[in-house]
Amino acid sequence: MTENTGRPPGADDEDARGEPPAEPSFTELISQPANPSTPAPPSPLIEPVLPPPAIQPPPALLHPSSPAIVPPAGPPVPRVEDIPTEAMPVMRELAPTEAMPAAEVPSDAATELLRAPSPPGVGDAPIDGDVDGDALDAVFGEQNFREYEPESLLVSPTPPPAPGVTADAPQASRLDRTQRTLLWVAGSLAAILVLIGLFFLGTRIPEWTAAEPEPEPTVEPIPEPEPEPEPDPLEGVPDGVPLPAGEWEWSLLRGGECLEPWVSPWEEQFTVVDCAEPHAAQLILRQEFPEAPAEYPGPEALAAPLSLICSSPDVLDFTAAAAYDDIQIQTAYPVTAEEWDEGYRDFFCFISRAGGEPLEGNLSLVSPVVGGDEGAGN
Question: Pseudo-torsion of CA 80, 86, 87, 90, nearest 10°?
């Protein structure tokens, strides 16, 4: 038993044939296995036709493409194939160029204002009719056109001189400027010379106005009085006798003088007393060294023979000296080479008592040196 659906027979076939198939849902797409994609054949390399080279920045270098990443299994996704690339040259060598002469362009010469033709309908010309030939000649006649010779753009025409100004005016202006400069320089030099002259004049004014210096009074040197000659200490003393009592230089002693007090044979001054009075010492002999050498022999060589000479019985009165048991002999002589070179060649023999007791009377047997000897040394 068939169920009548109210549709005519053959309607299902028509629906099956006429209706388009329904599109699969998202769930059906995911559940279907992925069809293996067949890689498209690589397109043939077509060398691009480049325009003529021009000066432009070089194209950026393209990095080599990385391998394609295979997406996970899923719905078919259109695959983008990597197109092979090729490194292009940065810049091609430019073709040599040649400098061309500049085109001559006519300069802006003076132009002539032309009267524009009257529009149609103005004046005597008919609106729809032909234009009168006299009107065309008046507009485009040869008398309305002028021919000019072409001139270079680099040379500008010299403007005509202004009325009343001659061509020599710039030169005269330059001459006036030069003359003014020279005048300024000359004036400056003259001013400097004047200042220099005033400076030197100012330095001379004090000399001209200064009063003459008064002559200084000459002071006559006061003549110094001539020093009075020192009195001769030996004046009035006869030769060949001992010096009288008094203070005497050691170099003036003659021999035989009795001395009081007594210190040493090397004193600079001695006090002479009368031998009849008690005295501490006596100079019994003053004599020059026998056979004195020219060069200083030394103090030891000079002192060696003096003990025998001074104690000789021809010098000392042993009879008078026998009253004393402590008689001592002391000598003096030149002790430096300087004294020897100056002429001091004498020696002196002094006697005294070792205990310091005084002596009485004259103990010398030798006559005194005649007149003394100031050149003898101590």
Answer: -100
Choice between 161 and 335, residue whose per-residue pLDDT is larger? 335
Q: How many CA atoms lie within 13 A of 301 on its CB side?
A: 11
Contacts for 110 with CB less than 8 Å, ≥ 6 apart:
none
Q: Which residues pair with 283 in a beta bridge?
A: 350
Cα angle for residues 148, 149, 155 (degrees, 5° grid):
115
Predicted local distance difference test score (pLDDT) of residue 173 = 60
Q: What is the pLDDT of residue 88?
A: 64
Phi then psi for residue 296, to 5 deg, are -65, 120
Nearest one of 37, 117, 119, 109 to 77, comparing CA atoms: 37
Task: Please state, in angstroms and rounded to a whole number, the distance separating the CA atoms of residues 13 and 1.
Answer: 21
Q: How far apart are CA 369 and CA 240, in angstroms?
A: 6
Q: What pTM does this model have?
A: 0.41
Instruction: Report the amino acid identity of residue 346.
Output: D
Q: Are 52 and 94 in contact (CB under 8 A)?
A: no
CA distance 310 to 331: 8
- Polymer length of the chain: 378
Average pLDDT over residues 52-78: 55
Of 346, 305, 349, which is closest to residue 327 (Cα–Cα)? 349
269 forms beta bridges with 249
Q: Which long-range contacts (CB under 8 A, 24 or more apart) does 288-292 make?
A: 288/345, 288/346, 288/347, 288/376, 289/333, 289/345, 289/346, 289/347, 292/345
What pLDDT, in 10s, does the model give residues 331-343?
A: 999 999 999 999 8
332 dihedral zone (left: phi>0; alpha: psi -120 to 50; beta)? beta
Contact 270, 374 (CB under 8 A): no
Q: How far apart are CA 194 and CA 208, in angstroms?
A: 20
